[in-house]
Write a structure and sequence with these properties.
Strand order of the largest sheet: 7-6-12-13-14-11-15
Pfam family, one: NAD_binding_8
CATH architecture of the largest domain: Alpha-Beta Complex
Radius of gyration: 21 Å
Organism: Rhodococcus xishaensis
Protein name: NAD(P)/FAD-dependent oxidoreductase
Structural class: alpha/beta
Number of strands: 16
Length: 473
């Protein structure tokens, strides 16, 4: 019987394990931590009973994932919950930009920019499933939907700053800029429209949902499917080098390129080792969990009803902030993301105390404490929030790798999204999941299609391994 080992029980490691198990491969997963999940864990970080997502929190790409949609995750406990408003972007002297699953409702709220928003996102949304099948795979593949891919590509390759010019209102520009900023890359550079277009189209197709009970429900469901198909998971099992693993037909590494180098050492071919050493990591995240009595007192009512709130001001302010990050400067007003998951999933709260998830974009390897900067950004749009905070927990950029070693320098995206690397990661190769060591594959968020809890990196890597097994069979 064919057998496999997977190192790392994050979303991609589990996705690889499930894919292999569904094809009758005997799979064992080794996880160094005492709990599975990687960036999709949920814990009680502040007061008892209050559920905080440790890293990934809101999942437009999870709901849209072709791999996740191919599984019966609901039977294994995953339920997507959607807030009344998916995303709000408050402004200092104007009403907030508001994004909902409905293109019509979003466009109506954008006034004179509504028709332009509708023209841009209607075709992307209507053909989103075709688009996802194309862009969530390695760049080197034969397109099944070339027209859909070409239409997306023409806009995706442009700088976000250029795309934003199609709108006149602060609201439309800020909404797009805040989502494009998820790329952690200067918005004046090529390809920075890609993330904004993809995530907004995914939101119009599937919403920006959260998982009931926390993000851990996603990886718990994957683990349950794996076990149902004979797979095993060993937690607290740290693998320090490849030589200690049992001999198997397939080895999957849910690790960053730096982690693969550490594990494989001189077993890597020199050309692959050089490519992994050159792999570039991006800016970091500073994470802040808050326990807030009665929730955040936003000035704008839309923010009170939004599952996600982006705090960055105008498009121009966001662009300046992201530029400074790439110059190694800590902005006075960092771009801050707020998650109010309890609005869609009240089970996360403890009475009238609600969990608020926040993180700020900070420079790579930033050693400072961004707590005060985050609170200032919140109070800029929600005065007197501090008076409601019952407890808090923070994790700095330099503490991120202790939580998840794949977050090199605090980079939770596991790799810089510069134009070359967004297309060819973790190295330029026809099969980017191979490591050059026979039977050993990299399957982390450092592989195509990149970061996000969607499992596609693990699924793609496992499919690559299965194809090779069939050829050598």
């Amino acid at each position: 019987m064919t057998d496999a080992v997977v190192v790392g029980a994050g979303p991609n490691g589990l996705a690889a394990a499930v894919t292999l198990a569904l094809h009758k491969v005997a799979v064992t997963v080794y996880e160094a931590d005492d709990t599975i999940g990687g960036g999709a864990r949920t814990t009680e970080r502040t007061i008892p009973g209050l559920l905080h997502d440790d890293c990934s929190a809101v999942h437009p790409m999870g709901a849209a994932s072709p791999f996740f949609r191919s599984l019966d995750l609901a039977t294994y406990g995953l339920e997507w919950c959607r807030p009344e408003i998916d995303l709000a972007h408050p402004l200092d002297n104007a009403v907030a930009g508001v994004f909902t699953r409905s293109i019509t409702e979003t466009a109506d709220r954008l006034g004179p920019d509504g028709p332009s928003w509708r023209r841009l996102f209607t075709p992307l949304t209507e053909r989103f499933d075709e688009l996802a099948d194309e862009v969530l795979r390695p760049i080197a593949h034969l397109p099944q939907h070339p027209i859909t891919l070409a239409r997306f590509g023409s806009g995706a390759l442009t700088p976000a700053a250029m795309t934003a010019r199609r709108w006149r209102t602060q609201q439309a520009r800020a909404l797009f800029g805040g989502v494009a900023a998820h790329a952690y890359y200067p918005l004046t550079r090529p390809t920075t429209s890609a993330v904004g277009l993809l995530m907004l189209a995914a939101g119009h197709r599937y919403g920006w949902p959260v998982a009931r009970g926390g993000s851990r429900s996603i990886t718990d469901a994957l683990a349950a499917i794996l076990r149902a198909h004979g797979g095993r998971i060993e937690t607290g099992r740290r693998v320090r080098w490849l030589g200690e693993l049992p001999r198997t037909d397939v080895t999957m590494l849910d690790l960053s390129p730096a982690g693969v180098i550490e594990l494989a050492g001189n077993r890597l071919p020199p050309r692959v080792a050089r490519a992994y050493r050159r792999y570039r990591y991006g800016p970091a995240a500073f994470k802040l969990d808050l326990a807030v009595e009665g929730g955040i007192p936003w000035r704008d009512d839309a923010c009170r009803r939004a599952g996600t709130v982006h705090l960055g001001g105008t498009f121009g302010e966001i662009a300046t902030t992201e530029r400074d990050l790439h110059r190694g400067r800590m902005p006075e007003r960092p771009f801050v993301l707020i998650g109010q998951q309890y609005l869609a999933d009240p089970s996360r709260s403890a009475g009238s105390v609600h969990p608020v998830w926040a993180y700020a974009h900070v420079p790579h390897g930033y050693t400072g404490d961004a707590t005060e900067a985050i609170l200032r950004q919140i109070e800029r749009f929600a005065p007197r929030t501090r008076e409601r905070i019952v407890d808090s927990f923070s994790r700095s950029a330099v503490e991120m790798p202790a939580y998840n070693p794949n977050y090199v320098g605090g980079d939770i995206a596991s790799g810089a999204n510069d134009p070359l690397q967004i297309l060819f990661r973790p190295r330029i190769a026809l099969d980017p999941y191979t490591t050059g060591i026979p039977g050993v594959y990299i399957c982390s968020a450092s592989t195509p299609p990149g970061g996000g809890v969607h499992g596609m990196g693990g699924y793609n890597a496992a499919r690559a391994a299965l194809r090779r097994l069939e050829r050598t069979g």
